[in-house]
Amino acid sequence: MTITINHFLILSFLLFAIGFFGVLVRRNFLTVLMSIELMLNAVNINFIAFSRRLSDLTGQVFSVFVITIAAGEAAIGLALTISLFRQRKTLNVEEANTMKG
Amino acid sequence: MKDLLWLVPLFPLAGFLVNGVLYLISHRTRGEAADAHGSQGAPALAAAPAPSVHGENPAHTHAGSSAHDPAGHSPIPLKTAHTVVGTVSVGLSCVFAFLAILDVGIGRLSEGAAHVVTLYRWLPLGVNQAVGQVHGPAGEWFVDAAFRLDSLSALMIAFVTFVGFLIHVYSVGYMGHEEGYGRYFAYLNLFMFSMLLLVLGANFLLLFVGWEGVGLCSYLLIGYFYDRDAAADAGKKAFVVNRIGDFGFILGIFGIFSLFGSLDFGKVFPAAAAHPSAYAPYLTLVCLCLFVGACGKSAQFPLYVWLPDAMAGPTPVSALIHAATMVTAGVYMVARCNVLFRLSPDALLVVAVVGGFTALFAATIGVAQNDIKKVLAYSTVSQLGYMFLACGVGAFVAGMFHVMTHAFFKACLFLGSGSVIHALGGEQDIRKMGGLASKIPVTYRTFLVATLAIAGVPLLAGFFSKDAILAAAFEAHFASAPWLGRVLWAAALFTAGLTAFYMLRLVSLTFWGKFRGGTEQEAQIHESPRSMTVPLIVLAFLSVVGGYVGIPMVRGGDRIGEFLHPILLPLAGAGAHTAAHEAAASTEALLMAASVAAAAIGLALAYVWYAKGEGAVPARIAARFPGVYRAVSNKYYVDEAYDSVFVQGLAKGGGRFLWDFDATVVDGAVNGTRHVTVGLSWLSSFFDQYVVDGLVNGVANTLQAGFRGFRRAQTGRVQNYALVMGGGLFCLVAVYLLFR
Fold first, then answer.
1. Among A23, A72, B244, B590, which residue has the least CB neighbours within 10 Å?
2. Could you report the predicted ipTM of this complex, rounded to two decimals?
3. Which residue segments constitute the domains of chain A, with CATH numbers given?
């Protein structure tokens, strides 16, 4: 069986869905951050798959950008985590509901 | 000498100043030692000098004075000084009055000559612009300080200064024991000055100054014993009642000035006499105003109430001011204005009716009084009524004649009563007297002579003057009421009988029978000193001969009539419709017989009832008609009526009304404003709270309520937002894919 683009797309979709699900249901802020990393990497797989299939490097360039931004995002996310912990002594996102109307 | 007329009032004025200053100085140095007795804390009445040390411990001040002043101002020389200054000033005034009259000449005065001494221009009042008969001639308006000596004022100053002098002499003896001797003489001299100013003043304003001056002195002297409430109240009463009269008088003066443009007697009366028809319509009002003034000063109904109370003053004061001189000022004023009154028959009618009524009214009260001075006081009111009756029927000369004779016998009676009171040590109730005839013979004889004179016993002074009035009343005919003359005559005749009755009742209760007081009191009865008996004798003599200047029915006998005739200026045009007509000789003799009979009946009744019957018959009558007796002895409750109507009703009721007005209307307005303000601010706050705030909150609440659902969307949980975002994205992509 040959590995076609469909396999990559299915893998990418599953990773993204797992990540998205994690973002929606996990209570721990760190886990949420990690779920976001999963979603970003799912997108990277997608980019790389199409770059290979279409023989176009633009997709690879984009994935490098995404990895770079993901690093920045992880840095900011961890800073927020520390700040949240200092304020609330918890990492439960359910309790960070100050914006409740 | 006639140009020195101003000396006549000047002497008493100087006497007043010297006595007053002496009194003040002596009280400054001696403290209030003399007056402190019996006047603890009592405020000095009115203008009475109020030394700064008033009310200090008398012993202390007395000791102080003797220490500071061992030989100087002992009371005796001071008293002598007061006596000399007081009596000599009036004596000199009397001498100069007679000299002035003689200098002008009695004959010339009786021809109408008037001697006017102008001292200076008193009030320049500008220039009269309105030219017209009713407003007086064009020219300058002014009032001079001027004295006028004509037959009327000559008669007045003659008896005022003479009787005044006698009473000053009498006062030396009578007031010798009293405190405040110097004050008394100062006031008495001030009174003489004012009275002479009143009589001699050549215009209404000067007359008014004198008029007010005598009123002031009357007040001061009634309240002389100011530590007694009765005296102080009587003084105030006299002053207040006189104010009512003076208000009318000054309105009359205003009227005269607006009519004639002058207040000078020498201008007003000739102008009125020359143009009767021009002035007559206005004169009734003016004359009635003047008469209100006369009623106040001369104690006529309804303003007589002050005079009986005025007896609270020292007896010589009652004699001088409240019998002989001041109270006749009203009659003098009416006689002075006879031209104006004769032009107004209605005013004359009022004068006659008020006079006649007062005469009868007061005489009936006099019958039932038990205070020797009260009897004489009501007698005075009654006799003053006689004088006004005379003026009212047009017999001004008879009125003035009675003024003069009345001054003699009433002064004699009052001084005699003073002598009685003096002898009894202050007793005034005739029920506690009796049998004094042998103990004080001089007083008794003079009193009896004066009594017979006032009763109208033939050939005594009162007979002639009273008879002249009765005859004039009988002959008077009023156009509006022809029968009125006879009615007034009958009333006056009855009054004459009553007068004789109550006067002899007084004599018999006082002098005849047995003494009804205590034995201790009886032992101390003594005849008065010569300074008191000599004036009594002189006045009694005048009460006998005083009438011979006006003998009726004899050619040349009516000297006073001729003398005073010039004051009755002839009116231009028609003859005076109210002038007294000459009665036929037979009528006059008949009238005379009637008045003698009335007097005889009165005297006889009094003699039989009181001297013989010891008052049994009157007591039976009083018991038979208790209501009448009570009414009369209580003076018909006039004082009570005035008290309830004016004092309680008007004054206190008015005060009550003003209080209520203040409490309800004024306070109501203030409180009302407060209530309105509170109400408005409440309304404003209500508006703010409910309308403005309501609007704001309403908007907020509406929005809050309306958008409650949206609130629920804002859970604050990032994951919810992410879910919705994902859902939304899913939906969008789904829609895109399905409907591409």
1. A72
2. 0.84
3. 5-92 (1.10.287.3510)
